[in-house]
Amino acid sequence: MNTTAFKLNIVKDYPKPGINFIDINPLLAQPQHFGEIIRQFCHVIQNAFGHNALAQTAIIAPESRGFLFAAPVANQLNLPLVLIRKEGKIPNKPYAFHITNEYTSYNMEIDEDLLNNYRQFIYIDDILATGQTLAAVRQALQRKGKEIALSVHLTHVADLKPMRDNNKDLQGLPIEIIL
Q1: CATH number, position 23
Q2: Is the pLDDT reported for residue 94 higher than 90?
Q3: d(CA 171, CA 150)
Q4: How far apart are CA 68 and CA 165, in angstroms?
Q5: What is the mean pLDDT of residues 44-59?
Q6: Where residue 101 falls among pLDDT bands split at 50, 70, 90?
Q7: Which helix (H) or strand (E) covers residue 134, if one does?
Q8: Given this model, what pLDDT does residue 55 score?
Q9: Beta bridge partners of 128
């Protein structure tokens, strides 16, 4: 199947005026397309690292739509998955940090014990818009001596690429887009 043939729905002015929301629900409702997308995520990661170069690497994903892609990819590649959760959802040692994105501002957490088990991470999420969430996660990991080695997204907002390109916190970070 050609993944470029699949189109995601755009909902204008949602969740607020001026925002065009990319709806992934139609993709999730079609198992054959969703399966192909997961294979594409795996292919991109394997091409970037090779099969044996993923030691001390885990997949990391933000709540909640990132989980939908990261969990099956981690399973397929036999890689650990570390979740980035909203504040108050990590029961063990939460490592907290702040995110401000195009919609809102909030605190996120990562299980610090899990974080300490890995040297580098592959960040997976659904949509790359302004890149502010990715930049905040990258900064939080760097404060702990960790790095994002690759960021892979289902799709991106092309009109926001200049904003991402000018974000010093994203410079030098390999970013791949599936659709």
Answers
A1: 3.40.50.2020
A2: yes
A3: 12
A4: 27
A5: 87
A6: confident
A7: helix 132-143
A8: 81
A9: 156
pTM above 0.70, yes or no: yes
Helix (H) or strand (E) holding 75, with range, is helix 65-77
The model's pLDDT over 143-171, given as tens digits with 9 standing for 90+, comes to: 999 999 999 999 999 999 999 999 999 99
Q: Which of 124, 160, 126, 123 is nearest to 142 (CA)?
A: 123
Q: pLDDT per residue over 60-70, tens digit each?
A: 999 999 999 99
Residues 6+ away with beta carbon under 8 Å from 76: 38, 39, 42
Q: Which residues are CB-neighbours of 9 under 8 A, at least 6 positions away? A: 22, 23, 25, 26
- Domain span at residue 168 reads 3-177
Taken in order 127, 55, 49, 74, is the CA torsion positive or negative?
Answer: negative
Strand partners, 100: 105
| Contact partners, residue 99, CB within 8 Å, separation at least 6 | 105, 106, 107, 108, 132, 133, 136, 137
Half-sphere exposure of 36 (CA within 13 A, CB side): 12
Domain count, the chain: 1
Q: Is the Cα dihedral 122, 125, 127, 131 positive or negative?
A: negative
Confidence of residue 19 (pLDDT cuts 50, 70, 90): confident
The number of angstroms, rounded, from the C-alpha of 75 to the middle of its chain's C-alpha atoms is 16
